[in-house]
Structures are given as C-alpha cells and as structure tokens.
Amino acid sequence: MRHDPRKLYEDILRAIEETASFCRHKTIEDFRDDRALQLIVERELEIIGEAMARLQREYPDLADQITDTRKIIGLRNVLAHGYDILQQEILWDVATNKLASLKREIEGLL
Predict the structure, then answer these.
(1) Alpha carbon distance 86, 75 (integer Å)
(2) In this structure, which long-range contacts are made by residues 84-92, counting pairs with CB atoms below 8 Å and at least 24 apart in sequence?
(3) Residues 6+ apart with CB under 8 A from 85
(4) Which residues contact 31 (CB under 8 A, 6 or more apart)?
C-alpha cells in the first residue's frame, strides 16, 4: 500500500519543527554535552530521511522536486547503519541551518 505523499510531507514538517524546538536557544557546545538532545536530533533526522526514502520509492517525480533528496536519504542511512562515524558538527549544522530550506520547499509542495 502506497503512502499518501501529503502525509509524508506532514511527517517531514513535524520532524523539522520538533528539531527546531529542541535546538532553539542551544549551542553546538550544548549539543555536544547533551546526549538526550543528540538522540532527539538523530531520531528526527531519521524520520525525515525515512519519509524522503518512501517518497523517492513511491513518488519519484515528487521527490525529485526536493533539493538534496539523495543526501537526506543518505544521512538517514548513516544514522541507521553508520552511527559510529557520525560527526556531531554535521548533525548540528543540518539541524540548525539546513532544515529551514527543506521546510520551505515542503511547505511549497503542500
């Protein structure tokens, strides 16, 4: 059974908003020192990546409209399978700088 693309978009937006909420008023140093925050961010990024992977599999034409679809899915794969090679600085950059543009793209598609 195929997923509704609107539901996938909404899952992505919710994960972006959760990430922004937990990272608000935090610094990279806070992130490095707070294992719970790291786990939250990792989980929300996995959700985003999994929703994008489903979108890519089921609606490739829609996924192709989103910048860096393959990188987003790739990050999800690293989070799930290559957790031991994660760099905290990269996750923090994605969480605090890259998700805003993804949010705008997804909102535009809705």
Answers:
(1) 9
(2) 86/42, 88/28, 88/31, 88/32, 88/38, 89/28, 91/31, 91/38, 91/41, 91/42, 91/45, 92/23, 92/28, 92/31, 92/41
(3) 78
(4) 23, 37, 38, 41, 88, 91, 92, 95
Residue with tokens 């908003």: 17
What is the reported pTM?
Answer: 0.93
DSSP 8-class letter at 85: G
Q: Determine the Cα–Cα distance for residues 84 and 69; give it in Å rounded to an integer.
A: 23
In 24-96, which ranges are continuous DSSP H helix?
A: 28-33, 35-58, 60-63, 69-81, 88-93
* DSSP state, residue 83: G
> pLDDT tens across 26-75, in order?
999 999 999 999 999 999 999 999 999 999 999 999 999 999 999 999 99
